[in-house]
Task: structure prediction
Amino acid sequence: MNQVQRQVRRTSESASHQDKVEQEIETIVASIKRSKKYRDVYEGTIRELVRDEFGKRKRKVLEKAVRKRLHRIVAPYVGDPNYAKATVELETAFGSGGEDVVREVCARILSSHASARERLQIVDRFYTEIFAITGKPKAILDIACALNPLTFPWMGLPSTLEYHAYDIHERRIDFINTFFALQGLPALAKVQDVAFDFPQEAADVAFFLKELHRFEQNYAKRGLALLDALRARYLVVSFPTVSLHSGRSLTERYRQFFPELIAGRGWAIEEIEFETELVFCVDKG
Result:
């Protein structure tokens, strides 16, 4: 066998090995995606996590490790509504034509999610104080949005708004687009893992609400790169003031953490402290 033949053989063997690796990765992805707990999670997220863990562990341990990471990322313990029932409730509320009824139903749905439930306590003041700093936006990016788009009735913004919302929960995004359509907004919510695929849309304001601290832990400190990449004049980044699990105060921790994270960027920061949420309005200039 001459040198050219040996090279062809090595290339063929390498390609065959890579094909086997890809097949095994897809088998693991399909196994996790079939599970009841993660069947609504974006397949791309599962695949990236499997790729990240592949080669580090044996198959059974690898799948367990990916499921553990998904549990932290998806945070099923914070709650979700029954989306089919919630859709009917929204359709009925909008059919009534009453703004108060719509707000009441939105609040009831939001209360099923722990983080959104906390925001309900301050929602009457939340956007008023934020937009006093940023100005009223014509376009919004809502990063890792969860159910936050359902707070739109409290934003005081017109239905001409471009509201781009991103999440990795497929049924949640379908539900949010249903809400947008009922509200008269364009259906701009999308299934997208912003850790691996930064948003390309431009906006006046980008919300990243009570997620950056978890994002840093779950995605190997990619938070600053995401903030850099967001095409928005203002970033509105928030943190919980109290631990969901222990009830201890977190305000000083995040008051130190966030300015240190973005140090050297030259961005102007204004802070708003609410009872349940510490908000930083960042002017990227």
